[in-house]
Amino acid sequence: MRVLISGAGIAGPSLAWFLAKAGARVTTVEKAQALLPHGQNVDIQGSARKVLKKMGLVDEVLKFNTTEKGTQLIDSKGRPFAPFPVQKGTANSFTSEFEILRGDLAAVFYNATKDHPNVTYLFDTTVKEVISNDDVSVKVELSNGDVQTYDILVLSDGQWSKLRKQCFPEDAVKVVDKDMFAVYWTIPRIPTDNDWWNLYAALGRRVISLRPDPHGTIRAMFTRMPMNEAHRQEWLTAARGDRATQETLLRKEFTDAGWQSQRLLDSIPTAPDFYFQPMQQIKMAKWSTGRIVCLGDTAYAPTPLTGMGTSLAINGAYVLAGELSKLENGEHPSKAFDAYESIYRPFVEEKQQIPSLLPGFVHPNTARHRFLINTLASALSKVVRTPWLANRLAKMVFDESDHEDFPLPKYPVFEEEPAVKATELNTQ
Ligand SMILES: Cc1cc2nc3c(=O)[nH]c(=O)nc-3n(C[C@H](O)[C@H](O)[C@H](O)COP(=O)(O)OP(=O)(O)OC[C@H]3O[C@@H](n4cnc5c(N)ncnc54)[C@H](O)[C@@H]3O)c2cc1C
Ligand SMILES: *[C@@H]1O[C@H](CO)[C@@H](O)[C@H](O)[C@H]1NC(C)=O
Ligand SMILES: *[C@@H]1O[C@H](CO)[C@@H](O)[C@H](O)[C@H]1NC(C)=O
Ligand SMILES: *[C@@H]1O[C@H](CO)[C@@H](O)[C@H](O)[C@H]1NC(C)=O
């Protein structure tokens, strides 16, 4: 089976890993010149940890942990309070052991596949046009001018996939706005920085966060909930605009936010990885058409508010590859695509649900609201540091993130162990 994958983020390379193991030949095109180091902490939850284990990549992911000591709040005078330290083997913190920077995770999957003899990556390359998609094959023209035919084409080029627009009718894709915006970038570390995730609730529905990374720099984030509809439109316009427009808006809206807002605003112009993201979900009526199938954020972006984008992409890659591996010679891939969707869609829909009051609760507008949050957080912080209480409460407050939240189907090709490393294959 010859497979073309569009997009080397999280979903694309994890799919390539499983497809290569099942004996397929995989080509992945990526728009960027090199693997994007962008993005902040992502958490690998539940069943996705089991998938990592099947890939033999657990140690690799732990090695690139974010080194974060835990989560703490910052008060209006800039002082930390309400610490939630990471406690190994328990879930009593907002920081998990399986937290890794998005860019590092993408590199883990890329590194684990790039030397496989049946996997090829083409950077600085996109699918320019899908020429045909029929019973026999899918034919494409790449941006480098090559015309190629494949058995299937996988769209894993993210939430804003242009190819999805080309391949599916407009009414097949729904964008659900979640009324919140996030901006991420990396800044130089200074001696007063620490190894905690520091969260500061500025009033007026703004939050500022600073957290460490394993590369000696600090990851900064602004999040913002608009005050009304006109304000929301202003932010949506900036999201579609260029970086200068976005910087101007941030300067206007965060200059008076307090704490380290000035330092952060001043660092934006030189940030290598500035990323402005409206919280919007993708919902598709059907994930495939003919020989073309969507995976990860392209098909079902849940937003970082759920903490599930990465896990959905990883589990999805496993199921899609598994179903494809079950096809008999000559069978149309739509059979596998339909199975992937019917097995996986209920879980995706469950995980796309966001408690509607949560984002508003953590973005206080008034001093009174902030006082309430701070009081609750302080109390909770004391509780989780009292072991016997913590064990009872953790299950209520924090996700039991190690349990198998999605029952993984078993596929014979992925059951043998242990996975031979791609680098070892090359030297055989
Ligand atoms: C730069 C960036 C930063 C992110 N930061 C965070 C974060 O801090 N926190 C968080 O929770 N989630 C973040 N995400 C989203 C997160 O990666 C996804 O929710 C999740 O991991 C699913 O990944 P994915 O592979 O489906 O999509 P993505 O990770 O978005 O990967 C899509 C890939 O496709 C490439 N691409 C785009 N267009 C084309 C094209 N036309 N042809 C070929 N390739 C193309 C992109 O360059 C990218 O490498 C970020 C995504 C990106 C792209
Ligand atoms: C987390 O990363 C640090 C430094 O990058 C490393 O020393 C530590 O061993 C890692 N933790 C695990 C569990 O691998
Ligand atoms: C990927 O491989 C490169 C080159 O060998 C290495 O520098 C990098 O640290 C690796 N990254 C991860 C996340 O494994
Ligand atoms: C690569 O694919 C071919 C079939 O196209 C297969 O025979 C071979 O075993 C694969 N190589 C590896 C290392 O999986």
TrEMBL record:
UniProt GO MF annotations: FAD binding; oxidoreductase activity
State the name under which the record lists this protein: FAD-binding domain-containing protein
Q: Which UniProt keywords apply?
A: FAD, Flavoprotein, Oxidoreductase
Identify the domain of life: Eukaryota
Q: Which InterPro entries match?
A: FAD-bd (IPR002938), FAD/NAD-bd_sf (IPR036188), FAD_aromatic-hydroxylase (IPR051704)
Q: Where is the FAD-binding domain?
A: 2-349
Supply the PANTHER family for this chain: MONOOXYGENASE (PTHR46865:SF2), OXIDOREDUCTASE-RELATED (PTHR46865)
Q: Report whether Flavoprotein shows up as a keyword of the record.
A: yes
